[in-house]
Amino acid sequence: MAWDFETDAEYQAKLDWADTFVRDEVEPLDHIWEHQQFVPLDGARRKAIDPLKDQVRKQGLWATHLGPELGGQGYGALELALLNEILGRSSWAPIVFGCQAPDTGNAEIIAHYGTEAQKERYLQPLLNGELFSTYSMTEPQAGADPAQFTTRAVKDGDHWIIDGWKYFSSNARTASFLIVMAVTNPDVSVYKGMSMFLVPADTPGIDIVRNVGLYGEAMNDGTHALIHYDGVRVPEEAMLGGEGQAFAVAQTRLGGGRIHHAMRTIGLAQKALDMMCERALSRETSGSRLADKQFVQGYIADSYAQLAQFRLFVLHTAWKIDKYNDYKKVRKDIATAKVIMPTVLHDIAWRAMQVHGALGVTNELPLFQMIHGAAVMGLADGPTEVHKTTVAKQVLRDYKPNDDLWPSEWIPKKQEAAKAKFAEYLELEVGNL
């Protein structure tokens, strides 16, 4: 029986290095080049960040989500989870370590489904951290429901012509290419009638109508594009994974992406808890420290318990991914982690904000940004409510209905069965009276 909560010494040494490196070298980037993580490097940023990437490579921690055949280390999901906890504290850290969303998922599906020519053109530069990509799936009228998608790709000789609208296509403004999901056969099920295309960002007909921002960002200065594909012509070889295979491709991408988000959220929630505890020990009111107030102690205890449970669940899910090497077999647990994630981050960041008082709601601390991030996590890669129904359906598969009038745990029936099972002993007991 194998059951161990320790990390082997060699990898723990790498985690310790990463922890110090992120705090000392990477987190400062968040304060001088905010919101520029997905802008291609040039000038001063390249001079500052390229050497950091080189240090990560020397430590064998570059692109750890990928196997050795793709330039990664093949550590697996569990070790990636332990690393991502550290990276989750900083917006720049995933970039510096070559494992940022959405590029990780996009690289994964190109690696699985791309042709050799596609891998050479798109995958290798993506793995090298020299360009960014966009996953263009959601549509404004449909949200995350692919059954409502209307963007079409129509065959025209040896080309496909894409027409339609896509919404929340993150990083499109700085991406070198887009992965576009479109209906190629409207006469069959949506699960068989959609295909994906690799589309260079400079292809004529791609019109970024608006760059939608999150709350607090300037209008039309965000990173989530509303795109009009207006007669976008791509060759046959632009199709990724074959005609009608979009759903198979998407599930490969989204399963990994969801659990990676959960891994990084552990680190962000831990940062909020750290801030809360520091503040509680540092401030006094009404004659004693905040840390001595029972209300604040309750905040700390609830936050610790919530985060510990979430972390263990994510690590267990990562262990299952390594064990089965099949996202479908871990679908229930990935969906559950996705459901839990926004609540954990919201609750801990909210309590930390309360402990910091008025300062907590200002833009001089990152707490309200974390709360807003929790709301985003509740929608990214599918709404929480959709994942709850997935979890419920998966759980119910392990049960069967009871055809009896009474539930199987009905006590009168259990009592009768118990009496029948031990009848000889009961008779002996009566006989001895």
From TrEMBL:
Which named protein is this?
Acyl-CoA dehydrogenase
Names of required cofactors: FAD
Q: Identify the Gene3D superfamilies for this entry.
A: Acyl-CoA dehydrogenase/oxidase, N-terminal domain, Butyryl-CoA Dehydrogenase, subunit A, domain 2, Butyryl-CoA Dehydrogenase, subunit A, domain 3
Q: Which reaction does it catalyse?
A: a 2,3-saturated acyl-CoA + A = a 2,3-dehydroacyl-CoA + AH2
Pfam families hit by this protein: Acyl-CoA_dh_1 (PF00441), Acyl-CoA_dh_M (PF02770), Acyl-CoA_dh_N (PF02771)
- Biological processes, Gene Ontology terms: fatty acid beta-oxidation using acyl-CoA dehydrogenase
Domain Acyl-CoA oxidase/dehydrogenase middle positions: 135-212
Q: SUPFAM superfamilies per the record?
A: Acyl-CoA dehydrogenase C-terminal domain-like, Acyl-CoA dehydrogenase NM domain-like
Q: Which organism is it from?
A: Rhodococcus oxybenzonivorans
What are the annotated GO cellular component locations? cytoplasm
Q: Which residues form the Acyl-CoA dehydrogenase/oxidase C-terminal domain?
A: 247-396
Q: Which family does it belong to?
A: Belongs to the acyl-CoA dehydrogenase family.
Give residue ranges for domain Acyl-CoA dehydrogenase/oxidase N-terminal: 10-130
